[in-house]
Amino acid sequence: MHSVTGRIVIGKILGLLIGIAVMSTLPMFGFPLFSMFGLGTLIMFMLMGVMIAFVGLFSRHPILNFSMPWWLRGIVMGLIFMLMYVLLSYGALVVVMQSALVSWMGLTSPFWVLLDGALIGLLMSGLETKFAGEGEQLPLR
After folding, report:
1. For labeling, which of 22, 38, 109, 137 is most exposed (least CB within 10 Å)?
2. Among 39, 17, 8, 18, CA closest to 113
3. DSSP secondary-structure letter at 112?
4. 135 within 8 A of 57, measured Cβ to Cβ
């Protein structure tokens, strides 16, 4: 059954899985597994999933009154969350982007992770919409 709670649970689970996957790679870049950067990353991805779930309640923008399909909501929310992430953890992301594991691709600016955020937001929004529905008519259970 489609519901707001279903969207939130799916968002939290996806955020937890993506956050754990990112945290598990941090030791390769010289960060401890349970550092403040790692735990902040985990919390940020979980909050991203929950916010995408809540934004999925609106099929039209409440103020500007334009249609917001699931893919647009996911991409925009992913970009917003990753921009916040880059701005708050710029120094740590510079270390990650300048490491030998990443720099060989030519991606040296931390702002390249905005693309990752857009793709992760798209994935979260797509799975939440597919399995739990969307729009104002969703029940709260």
Report:
1. 137
2. 18
3. G
4. yes
pTM across the whole model = 0.90
Helix axes 70-88, 113-132, angle to 10 degrees: 140
Q: Is 52 left (phi over 0), alpha (psi -120 to 50) or beta?
A: alpha
Instruction: Give the single-character DSSP code of 86.
Output: H
8 A C-beta contact, residue 3 and residue 135 = no
| DSSP track, 21-69 | HHHHHGGGGT--TTSHHHHHHHHHHHHHHHHHHHHTT-SB-TTT--B--
Q: How far apart are CA 18 and CA 14, in angstroms?
A: 6
Q: How many CA atoms lie within 13 A of 92 on its CB side?
A: 17
